[in-house]
Amino acid sequence: MSSVKAMAKDHLSAIKAAEDDAALEDIRVSLLGKKGTISELMKTLGKMSPEERQEKGPLYNGLRSAVADAIAARKQDFHEAALDARLVSEKIDVTLPVRPQGQGTIHPITQVTDEITAIFADMGFAVAEGPDIETDYYNFTALNFPEGHPAREMHDTFYMTPDEAGARKVLRTHTSPVQIRTLQAQKPPVRVIIPGRTYRCDSDQTHTPMFHQVEGLAIDKSTTMGELKWTLEQFCKAFFEVEQVQMRFRPSFFPFTEPSMEVDIRCDRSGGELKIGQGDDWMEILGCGMVHPNVLRNVDLDPDVYQGWAFGMGIDRLAMLKYGIPDLRDFFAADLRWLRHYGFAALEMPNLATGLSR
Ligand code: DAH
Q: Are 78 and 18 in contact (CB under 8 A)?
């Protein structure tokens, strides 16, 4: 094989092997650039005898145009590959139905969660969150539910399959385990609300297996039950958007608070419409109390130094009450007619300045 043929073979296979534009450009410069191998070869033609030139000229010219053509072809390959990749990544299925414009609404649960968050944020509370799948420790033990204590049976718990060690995780039955997670992660003073999904094996007009709670927690060196009552009263007035609410605190039991209370608000059910803040009826809306010393000990806080209060309430229930929604199960039926009727305008965050539920 003549040396020109051998050169052509080497160059063409190098061009084929180039992986990208940059590598190809390097090859082009090294061969066809001002000081490139082929350009240097062309210069030697000038110093040749006419006979020799007649023989080598066509060979060298052929070499140069073969290399130039191969580079152009390889460039085209890259261009096509890039275009193919882009077409695949930008593919849209034009047979899908057109998305209706401006028909999306905010679900009442989201709306009420945002309203609650706005009210408590205004009072200096941060938002904390935790996992839906919890260990028995966080859901019960750390919250002062002793092993085998009947209070564990108060919640119709969903248990996961036990792991190799026999430990069963649970779908959290309340948002209270996030009290523990929060106090493990940050030092007092702590003021948080904890909205989230919760689960119990229960289903009727006012219960669904998945529902929503919001927890409140305040821990400091001096926190009082008066503060708890005032905070809840401010919340109820702001949430129900009324001037006055009357609240009734009844003694109750929760393992993680001492004393524990359930709170009712005065309401009027006569005439088929529920009115908050007036009338002769009472309606239970939440549970609360002073954080039990054992809970503080479980997160290494000294109950002689720190104390706190907590509360928990059902978001779904608050949404039903405020917006007159009769059946909880409809919340999760994904029925567009229901969503259009009870949904809220998108892009309007509830806030205390312009009104919560406009
Ligand atoms: N975790 C309780 C429940 O699900 C609600 C509750 C009551 C939370 C009292 C609290 C509290 O933080 O202090 O029934």
A: no
* Displacement of CA 255 from its chain's centroid (Å): 31
Which protein residue has the closest C-alpha to ligand 1 atom 3? 174
Name the residue at shortest CA distance from atom 2 of ligand 1: 312
CB 126 within 8 A of CB 191: yes
CA dist., res. 312 & res. 310, Å (int): 7
225, 233 contact by CB (below 8 A): no
Query: What are the residue ranges spanned by the domains of the chain?
Result: 2-89, 105-345
Q: What is the DSSP letter of 159?
A: B
pLDDT in tens, the chain (358 residues): 578 888 889 999 999 999 999 999 999 999 999 999 999 988 998 899 989 989 888 989 999 999 999 999 999 999 999 999 999 999 888 888 877 666 688 999 999 999 999 999 999 999 999 999 999 999 999 999 988 887 777 788 999 999 999 889 999 999 999 999 999 999 999 999 999 999 999 888 888 999 999 999 999 999 999 999 999 999 999 999 999 899 999 999 999 999 999 999 998 888 777 788 888 999 899 999 999 999 999 999 999 999 999 999 999 999 998 998 888 999 999 999 999 999 998 877 888 877 787 6
Choosing from 145, 215, 261, 284 the residue with most ligand 1 atoms within 8 A of its CB, the one to mutate for a pocket test is 215
Which amino acid appears at position 43 of this protein?
K
The pTM assigned to this predicted structure is 0.71
Q: Which of 170, 256, 263, 317 to mutate to test the pocket of ligand 1 (most atoms within 8 A of CB)?
A: 256
CATH number of 105-345: 3.30.930.10
